Amino acid sequence: MTNALRVSPRELARLISGLERGDAEAQQRIFALYRQPPRAHMIGVTGAPGCGKSTLIAALTRVWRRQGSTVAILSVDPSSPFTGGAILGDRIRMGELSQDPGVFIRSMASRGAQGGVAQAAADAAIALDAAGFERIVIETVGAGQSDISIVHLADTVVVVEAPGLGDDIQAIKAGMLEIADVLVVNKADRPEAEAAFSTLAAALELGEAVTGHHGPAGVAGRISMPPAHHRSADGWRVPLLKVSALRAEGVEAVAQAIALHQRWQAAHPERAQERAAQALREHLQSMLLRAALDRIGEQQFNAWALRCAARELHPAEAAAQLLASVVKEGDCA
Amino acid sequence: MTNALRVSPRELARLISGLERGDAEAQQRIFALYRQPPRAHMIGVTGAPGCGKSTLIAALTRVWRRQGSTVAILSVDPSSPFTGGAILGDRIRMGELSQDPGVFIRSMASRGAQGGVAQAAADAAIALDAAGFERIVIETVGAGQSDISIVHLADTVVVVEAPGLGDDIQAIKAGMLEIADVLVVNKADRPEAEAAFSTLAAALELGEAVTGHHGPAGVAGRISMPPAHHRSADGWRVPLLKVSALRAEGVEAVAQAIALHQRWQAAHPERAQERAAQALREHLQSMLLRAALDRIGEQQFNAWALRCAARELHPAEAAAQLLASVVKEGDCA
Fold first, then answer.
1. Between these two residues, B291 and B92, which has the higher pLDDT value?
2. pLDDT in tens, B148-206
3. Are A48 and B48 in contact, with CB atoms under 8 Å apart?
4. Which among A49, A291, A327 is the nearest to B165, CB-wise?
5. Which tens digit of pLDDT belongs to each residue from B118-130?
6. How many Å apart are CA B224 and CA B239, to the nearest integer?
7. What does the DSSP assignment read for A201-254?
């Protein structure tokens, strides 16, 4: 890497702030950095509030630091202790990591515009890669579709579940299992963990949970391999792991499963291609809307919105008519 | 309402299924129905998995049924018992409601496309209004931006919080408080409820929680009125209520707060106008992307996506170049 393509720690913070603001100069810098082959492993970690994602990320970071890897944590979860919005206990738990120069911790502001924070986070990850971080963790709250779009940025997606979040563990399952590359039941120290584990194992069509061979024996670190048909799209078998992030039990097995997936996906470029296609679609969409709104003009847009509010026209009809009139008068002038 | 504009129970189910499929005939029917003035009150209910949204909705529905109102529940939450994905206990809790002809319960499938389910739910609500339902509840999981866009459909947004979801109550707060018209702390029977209530009261800049006058005295049903500056945008004061939906304590106070907000917003049409503008923007955006992808063609799109995946071009650069070439060659041919 030439000097011009290396991002210094000092530039890094400035660059990420620029991306959050939508700064053109920061954007140009990212375009240049993007032309380098990616070196870092991008890991998405998601799960419902209260599942212990942040504790797991901190525990994983300690494992990676012991292995000699540098780690960047990018949080787009407003509940994360990394973002500074958390209670004292969490901050203390993170404390020693924030003193380590081999660990970078940053939160991204969640903008109103859909896709906005996902695009900024994707670009921040490019900057972190150019700054030399080897593991880049992108932390999001699991539930909505916006999280799924952030998760599209990652090479490896870790979905964290926990017992005691009520009956709704079913729910998270519904949307989140489909995107998991590694599935973790956290808080294995709690008695209800076994039930959550069984539910997930059943959901993965395992039938009976199988004791795996990647982690230490016993409650934590157990890995089950569902049959390959679970992820027929690309053939990866999603491991199901039980950990207690708080007690640091089973965390090395999660790190190992992540490393296994990293190696696997390096040999399967389809996901990276689909991610690029998705990013292209999202950029097309936001550019198109911006251009259309510019051409329509605020006054005309507001007039049509008022007609919709007055129930003269359904918004889909208004959109179709508005576009037809704009294309006719605009493009060939 | 003329007969042609009345939707029979039989048509209703068919119409909603048509909307989920994106059926053109169903869409035309909605366009016609949209021209009627809305009569129903649209109520969005959102909150994290495990907060007890569904139990609260069931309890509210019982209150409204006792008051003689018909109720439709539209669930876009994959974890909801209304969608059929839930455990037996929940289904039993709902059981008697699903036998009541004055109650309509339907879940909407969550599509991959962003905005897809929100648009379909908006249209389903129009059909439910035309079918004569007086209260239409739209239930979503709280956290992501997609939920916030669904919440844009509602006249009144109820945000449900609960103790015992971990430290992350902070989190939900961050994104969700801004959209709440009525804020509910559920599971008031639990000892930790007081802490959750105080946290939220502080977040609303109440300082000290004030005992209100809308509900019965005591733990449940307490309403606090934060100072008006909390919602400076439109001046509504968000009530904070403590309930135990499971024990049906405090639920009438929630129904009352919702009714108060209904009356308030009828006198403040700005929100309905902003909602129409937002719907118009979203329809413009999805139509623009569809039209652009049609014009670009799959082969050309894939070629550009591959260039992005190969790191020749950042997706934002590719999108800009692709749009420039498409506009040049396409519109004046």
1. B291
2. 566 678 899 998 887 765 544 444 445 566 778 898 988 888 887 887 777 777 767 64
3. yes
4. A49
5. 788 889 999 999 9
6. 6
7. HHHTT-SS----SSS-SSSTT-EE---GGGGTTT-----EEE-BTTTTBSHHHH
**Gap from B213 CA to chain A (nearest CA, Å):** 32
Angle at A143 between CA B279 and CA B83, to 5 degrees: 80
What pLDDT is recorded for position B48? 73
* Alpha carbon distance B311, A273 (integer Å): 11
In this structure, are residues B45 and B161 in contact, taking their beta carbons and an 8 Å threshold?
no
Highest mean pLDDT among B73-77, B179-183, B259-263: B259-263
Nearest chain B residue to A279, by CA: B315
pLDDT above 90 covers what percent of chain A?
A: 38
Q: What kind and span of H or E run contains A261?
A: helix A251-266
Among residues B28, B89, B44, the alpha carbon closest in space to that of B261 is found at: B44
Task: Report the amino acid identity of residue A333.
Answer: A
Task: Pick the residue from chain B with its C-alpha nearest to A313.
Answer: B35
pLDDT greater at residue B290 or residue B214: B290
Using CA atoms, how far apart are residues B306 and A305, in angstroms rounded to an integer? 38
What Rg do the C-alpha atoms of chain A give, in angstroms?
A: 22
Q: Is the pLDDT of residue A49 over 80?
A: no
DSSP A70-103: -EEEEE--TT-GGGT-S-HHHHHHHHHHHT-TTE
The pLDDT-based confidence of B78 (bands split at 50, 70, 90) is low
Compute CA distances B81 → A270, B17, B18, B50, B94, whole Å. 36, 19, 23, 12, 8
CA distance A33 to A127: 7
* Contact status, residue B269 vs residue A264, Cβ threshold 8 Å: no
DSSP letters spanning B240-307: EEE-BTTTTBSHHHHHHHHHHHHHHHHT-THHHHHHHHHHHHHHHHHHHHHHHHHHH-HHHHHHHHHH
3-class DSSP assignment, residue B27: helix
Residue A180 · residue A46 · CB < 8 Å = no
Hey, what are B230's tokens?
């909390």
Q: Which chain B residues have a beta carbon less than 8 Å from that of A314?
A: 30-31, 34
Going B269 to B275 to B276 to B277, the CA torsion angle's sign is positive
The ipTM estimated for the assembled molecules is 0.80
B289 to each of A32, B112, B150, B284, how far by Cα in Å? 27, 15, 20, 9
Element (H, E) at A138: strand A135-141
Domains and CATH numbers, chain B: 3-268 (3.40.50.300), 280-330 (no CATH)
pLDDT beyond 70 at B89: no
Q: Buried b / exposed e across B140-162, counting CB within 10 Å, b at 16+? A: bbbbbbbbbbbbbbbbbbbbbbb
Binary contact (B50, A167; C-beta < 8 A): yes
**pLDDT at residue B113 in the model:** 40
Does A102 touch chain B if contact means CB atoms closer than 8 Å? no
Chain B nearest-CA residue for A114:
B145
In angstroms, the CA B205 to CA B231 distance is 11
Q: Output the CA–CA distances (angstroms, integers) from residue B108 to A64, B16, B43, B49, B93, in the order listed.
A: 42, 8, 16, 17, 21
